[in-house]
Amino acid sequence: MKIVALAGGVGASKLLDGLRYAMDPRDLSIVVNTGDDIEMFGLYISPDIDIVTYTLAGEVNPAMGWGIKDDTFHCLEYLLRYTGGERWFNLGDRDLATHIFRTSLLRSGRKLSESADLIRRTLNVESRIIPMTDSHTPTTIITDEGDLHFQEYLVRRRAQPKVLGIRFENIESAYPAPGVAESILDADAVIICPSNPLISTGPILAVPGIRDLLKETRARVIGISPVVGGASLKGPTDKMMADLGMEVSAAQVAKSFSDFLDTYIIDYQDEFDATEIESLGIKVVVADTVMSNAEKKLALAQTTLKALS
Amino acid sequence: MKIVALAGGVGASKLLDGLRYAMDPRDLSIVVNTGDDIEMFGLYISPDIDIVTYTLAGEVNPAMGWGIKDDTFHCLEYLLRYTGGERWFNLGDRDLATHIFRTSLLRSGRKLSESADLIRRTLNVESRIIPMTDSHTPTTIITDEGDLHFQEYLVRRRAQPKVLGIRFENIESAYPAPGVAESILDADAVIICPSNPLISTGPILAVPGIRDLLKETRARVIGISPVVGGASLKGPTDKMMADLGMEVSAAQVAKSFSDFLDTYIIDYQDEFDATEIESLGIKVVVADTVMSNAEKKLALAQTTLKALS
To answer: Could you give the C-alpha distances from B65 to B15, B58, B61, B105, in angstroms and in order?
Structure first.
């Protein structure tokens, strides 16, 4: 069974970390959000691609869910001497190798998708990792304190400003990266990982063409709710949804995907949402979606695959 | 007394390390060789500028004479996973901060001279550090194994190929960096540091205009021989001179500077060269020029200043 997963960062990677044991990883292609991408110190940083890649390589820092395990931060400390800024974004010494290598590839004319492929192959990741687009489409969070790059909003300002809106810069002129359309059309199933629907899955679906591909594909499309019991397990999904006047519920997220979703996995805590989701023509599977350890990651991955069979 | 020093890397930095205690470092400007500059992993590396800067900042690795003390090499190890090459050039994690910062300045349109100034100011170096030129004029060593970038010849191939010639790429279209001419014309003295005359002092003198400035300036010009007892204390000076059919002697080096040199400091071991050098109209000072510890660095710096007074 050929599977495409649409993924953000940490939340998605937990499921992917389960999937790599639950299926042949060579049959998995992952289309990754690049709205979080940011240039710092002249280096092109692609946080979600790195999180997914490091996770599947078994190199991710398990405590954080991002960065490389046992990394040091000597270069960053010295960089901040030069630039004089506060340390709001952590870049480990080993992690920096990825950013330096990617940046040098991009400067020499290679595409982001080529760099992502070279990097995952070097790290012996068997699944294909594809950025949603090769264009730079940074996510801007419109807040009561002004427009902020998503990383500034999330990391520097710790998601404190009130969200008034979200803008994906240059998205209207972006194309899906090579491999995105083919993967989705060839797939037997598409998994919408439990990522922030606004700023992880949202940018992917906003790339012109991708949403239509999900409607057109013969693949079954299954999603896993990132909202459990009215809150996001990690990250600012719940706060952002609330700021924007949205109901913070699994049903609300399912609704936003109702034009292409066949099946939605919600947590036991959200069983009462099932009727509302089913009324949209979406099949509901209820499961334990809180992936707090390796066994639970694998179990949810198996549940997902079973729902597709 | 305002002093300009022309400097290569490790040899020059020993004298400069003495000079910063022997004089007011604010009265010292250092014009540094950039022929060794090289781009690696998309980063612009300026080895001699960094050696001089780190030395004057008190941060240099004292065992090597280059790099930052107590540095780690985690990023480089991971970079080599991506690029697959051998590790022939060491770039420490802290050191990389300098290269990343410099590269980002250059990419944003700043000049190498501006980056050198920002970096030395950040590291609280009071002496001015000026690259010989803002142009990229890499030194090519023509060898019996083909043309090699100087760093490849010296570091990767450990100066083993036979040197047939030396070429400073693009040097004919280079200009002295801002501050070079003014410093030399305003100086009371110019010190030619004990650097490799072929590939450290040589590129500086090859920048159109600089040699003429040394002839025109009212400043006394004093040099310290990098050749002691028929050999270079460090580096491939002696082997390169021999390969090129030159006599490996203090007198030979003095001769190559005879059009602008007023005084030359040679080692006690080379006293017999004094007559030949004096016959060129150059005053000779004989001293202990082997700077094997901090006291000897300071002593040679004081000898140099005394010869100028």
So the answer is: 12, 11, 6, 26
